[in-house]
Amino acid sequence: MFAVITTGGKQYKVSEQDIIFVEKLEVEEGAEVTFPVAALATDAGFKVGTPVVDGASVTAKVLKNGKSKKIYVMKYKSKKNEKKKIGHRQPFTKVQIVKIEG
């Protein structure tokens, strides 16, 4: 059994007990969050929602909020003696899938 959930403008294929990193959610560590289901595969068959499957949901527990590794971006203009170095750390939320209903 697996489900396809939508969060942060992305879709993730998840099963129970999976741990995934999603775009930052405004919830505290230890809290539970519910995601809408775009597609659901069970023993009975496969359901695809338009845009979500009615009566289906995925419950997950928030394990951690944090920032990923720093990446560096360089802006450079030739012959102008102009350059700029910028760093960025993308925030994320680490969640563990507890239950898939539907």
Describe this structure in words.
Strands 1, 2, 3, 4, 5, 6 and 9 form a seven-stranded antiparallel sheet that branches. The model has no long low-confidence stretch (mean pLDDT 95). The protein has no helices and nine strands. Helices cover 0% and strands 66% of the residues. 14% of the residues are buried. The chain has 102 residues and is an all-beta fold. The chain has strands at residues 2-7, 10-14, 19-23, 32-42, 45-48, 57-67, 71-77, 82-88, 91-101.
Low-confidence stretches: none
Distance from first to last alpha carbon: 10 Å
- Radius of gyration, in Å, reads 19 Å
Strand content: over 45%
The total count of strands amounts to 9
Tally of individual helices: 0
Outline the biggest β-sheet: 7 strands, antiparallel
The coarse overall form would be: elongated
Give the integer mean of the pLDDT values: 95
Helix content: under 10%
| Helix-strand string | EEEEEEEEE
Global structural class:
mainly beta
Compile the SSE list and pairings:
Elements: E1 2-7, E2 10-14, E3 19-23, E4 32-42, E5 45-48, E6 57-67, E7 71-77, E8 82-88, E9 91-101
Antiparallel strand pairs: 1-2, 1-4, 3-9, 4-5, 4-6, 6-9, 7-8
